[in-house]
């Protein structure tokens, strides 16, 4: 037995180092000691701890899952006497059951099986105070781990809820787009993107919507973010076995996004003004009264202060911080859309500005051969030199005056 004592003490010292090399050496020493004293509960606990340190979680769990009678038969009378009735009166716990439950829960935790880990820890929570110092320490660590796991599960639930909501908003955006409600579609895509920052479909759809209203700068930004996500996904799948089809699909989607970005950037160089009619959801033939009605509806619906009101979530802890960050992202995108809606109204509600805008649209759509003549006629008719090349944001200069006079919206 002297040899067993020596190996046990040596293994304990090695395990205190908490390194892989030390744990591996300790495992060898423990195995030798168990070959001499196979019923030592202390050695079994040390072996399980060494396996855990070496990240051999399944082996550690298998050791801990030995039938209860084996553990009882291999325990000394003194160890069996160290039992305590659970606080709910449902059973009796020995130190062997205690360390097994704790070590299994730790292993499940690092395997990502949080629910299984918590199930084991909840059983240990019913154990009352333990007079033995070792048992008390195990219970204390178990309680601490249970708190951590509950927090992670709460965050996981919040994250899953966000992902599901993102899918719903992206699908609704598609419906809005089909109905020609572009501002509504952009708003829903923005919500989806804020809720799930890796949702490629939402980024792709919003980029398409921005292309439709000729906001090529924002479309480029959306596509750049999409490409960044796809590059990470391609890199991840390339290092995983059995994901060849998925990797090929991601690569194809990435190349398509890169081609789209190149095309959009070329369009941006042309500095074409925004499609203000599409932004407000009105037709060129609609009256000023129709424009005003459309604006009122859009401004009320997309006011930044109303954006994300559905996010009535906890404001405390990590979950509260998660929803706070989402709400900030939603507000930022809503503010941009709201200003764009206001810009469209500032032009289309003013007869003179609308005429100038319509003229530029007409000239832009005129075939290349006759465009020069059309431009000269327009200049003579309106008696001013029309600067088409100044900026695609030609109308934005009037935004500040408009914003100050319509702050109630």
From TrEMBL:
Q: Which CDD domains match?
A: DnaJ (cd06257)
Q: Where in this chain does the record put each J domain?
A: 275-361
Under InterPro entries, the record lists:
DnaJ_domain, DnaJ_domain_CS, J_dom_sf, TPR-like_helical_dom_sf, TPR_rpt
Q: What is this protein called?
A: J domain-containing protein
